[in-house]
């Protein structure tokens, strides 16, 4: 059975996180502790079984000393196409005053507006 695009995105995120963890010479347990997540949860992320929230991605990026934006791209939370909402998406994801659910709702509404505008031929 073929994996969906989201499945592939999450799987590649997990592979990328594992590579970064190994490069940083951190054990799974060390990274989980530094990021404030459980060992089993981090293991599931690395194996592509779970999709972490933007908040967890930020914590992992901080612990690995890498760009959170890279993780957002790998997780499929931000479009890699320049000029297609990247700054809006990053602003929403980076807003500490919003809950994860509020962030996801805003991103969903924004994506629907982009899709609607892309479908219309009006100038």
Folded structure, characterized:
There is one protein chain. This protein has helices spanning 5-23, 28-35, 39-46, 54-64, 68-75, 86-94, 100-119. By secondary structure, the protein is mainly alpha-helical. Residues 1-6 have low confidence and may be disordered.
Helix content: 55-70%
When the domains are counted, the total is 2
Strand content: under 5%
Number of helices: 7
CATH topology of the largest domain: 434 Repressor (Amino-terminal Domain)
CATH class of the largest domain: Mainly Alpha
The chain-level mean pLDDT equals 81
Element-by-element helix/strand order? HHHHHHH
Rg (CA only) = 16 Å
CATH superfamily label of the largest domain:
lambda repressor-like DNA-binding domains
Helix and strand content put the structural class at mainly alpha
Please tell me the CATH architecture of the largest domain by its name: Orthogonal Bundle
Low-confidence stretches: 1-6
Taking the sheet with the most strands, its summary is: none
The count of DSSP E runs of length 2 or more, i.e. the number of strands, is 0
């Amino acid at each position: 059975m073929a994996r969906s695009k989201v499945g592939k995105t999450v799987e590649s995120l997990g592979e990328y996180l594992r590579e970064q963890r190994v490069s940083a010479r951190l054990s799974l347990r060390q990274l989980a502790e530094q990021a404030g997540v459980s060992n089993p949860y981090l293991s599931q992320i690395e194996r592509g079984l779970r999709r972490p929230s933007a908040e967890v991605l930020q914590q992992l990026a901080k612990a690995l000393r890498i760009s959170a934006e890279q993780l957002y791209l790998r997780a499929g939370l931000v479009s890699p196409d320049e000029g297609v909402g990247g700054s809006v998406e990053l602003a929403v994801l980076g807003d500490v005053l919003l809950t994860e659910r509020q962030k996801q709702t805003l991103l969903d509404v924004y994506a629907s507006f982009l899709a609607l505008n892309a479908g219309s031929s009006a100038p």
